[in-house]
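Input record, target 12 of the design panel.
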């Protein structure tokens, strides 16, 4: 049976906090029985959001550190063979702003 926010507590808890595209990535990972990687996607989403806030606050050092932590998590998911194109797209867009 396919897992959704209606029959899975984890998905129900995170659905309101994520954009629809990020939620779709999380949903796909949960349905592949990789809730551990889904949790990493949520952490990546937070790190990317945090990096953006650091850039707006002109805190370049903190932005660099958080984007590096996001990259490590992205690489771990890609190493497992899962497609997270949208997350990589978000990462690349924010990384270009970090100098």
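The sequence produced for target 12 reads:
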């Amino acid at each position: 049976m396919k897992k959704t926010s209606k029959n899975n507590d984890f998905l129900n808890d995170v659905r309101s906090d994520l954009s629809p595209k990020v939620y779709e990535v999380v949903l796909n990972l949960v349905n592949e029985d990789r809730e551990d990687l889904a949790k990493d996607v949520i952490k990546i989403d937070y790190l990317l959001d945090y990096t953006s806030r650091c850039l707006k606050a002109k805190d370049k050092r903190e932005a660099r550190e958080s984007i590096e932590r996001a990259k490590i998590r992205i690489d771990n998911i890609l190493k497992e063979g899962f497609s997270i194109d949208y997350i990589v797209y978000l990462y690349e867009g924010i990384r270009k702003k970090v100098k």
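The helical segments are 9-15, 20-31, 35-56, 60-79, 85-95.
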